[in-house]
Amino acid sequence: xxDGQPPSQARDEAWRQEQQARMLGAWDMLSGILxxxxxxxxxxxQADQSVPFIVITGFLGAGKTTLLNALLTQPHGKxxxxxxxxxxxxxxxxxxVSQRTVDTISLSNGCTCCSLAGDxxxxxxxxxxxxxxxxxxxxxxxGLADPHGIAQVAxxxxxxxxxxxxxxxxxxxxxxxAVDPAGRRIFAAQLAASDLIVLNKLALVGPGQHExxxxxxxxxxxxxxxxxxxxxxxxxxxILGIQHANGRAPAQWLTTPRLASHGYESVSLLSHGTxxxxxxxxxxxxxxxxxxxxxxxxxxxxxxxxxxxYQRVGQRWSIVAGETRGQQAPRAxxxxxxPRGTLDEARLQxxxxxxxxxxxx
Length: 361
What we know:
The chain is an alpha/beta fold and 361 residues long. The chain is built from 11 helices and 14 strands.
């Protein structure tokens, strides 16, 4: 629509607004980091006690709240604390609601929705310092927010473990959002910050255009894994891999029966003996880019007597020290999730076996 401005003036105004948004974003990030540092507990949290923190980002209307609704109502048995901007968009079955106040919705399954009306750093500190912290904290970022700043605020709180940033993308609207002068910077920042991408609303795109939309998005994000699924039906295990650094094998993790029905498979790898850190790092580098999630409980040679927990969401991964192994013989377990048909279990098992350390503890 022609607003009466010459093209050069319109470009200048768009540039000015973008620079202003950058400055405000930088200030919000800096102030948030400072506040998070002041709000964090004085003592440093143990790595295996950190609360997993997941950010769900995506442009306006992409389907973030739809994904949250699915996470809240699936029978995963986890106590989630969900931070949202707008309660009105959360469509929770009244049968699940056990208590409701102005700022929170408590569900009978142990999940809690909290309003983001207050300062983020303070809210995160309150949740992590509770007598019984949640199993994980999930934040739905505003559709106009740059998730880099949110991630920095989380990283400043030692009681949190940033597990991943999930971007929800509208398959029908994404190309327009990528070139819109008012929103392209945020759209690009959301993709750049993400570890995992959910390509939503494919049903609104003509069947003949699915491949073209998928190819275009891969051009924007490179090797980052893309989940093509309706945000209402994504299995819990694809988004959240709750850390339980208790030294037990993750055999009961990633067992959602809906994985197969949505075109995904999990492969469980087992190796007896201590794991050489260098060999394991090379093995991780060799994993196919199709791997969406992974979790392992590993007796690393660099940490004698301890079980370490490996977590991966897309390209983001971490290894933290868990509990002592006691008298248990060293045993390494690793579970991988990827689209069906992309994992060669025999080759992966052989590669995992090659990670064994030749030096006994």
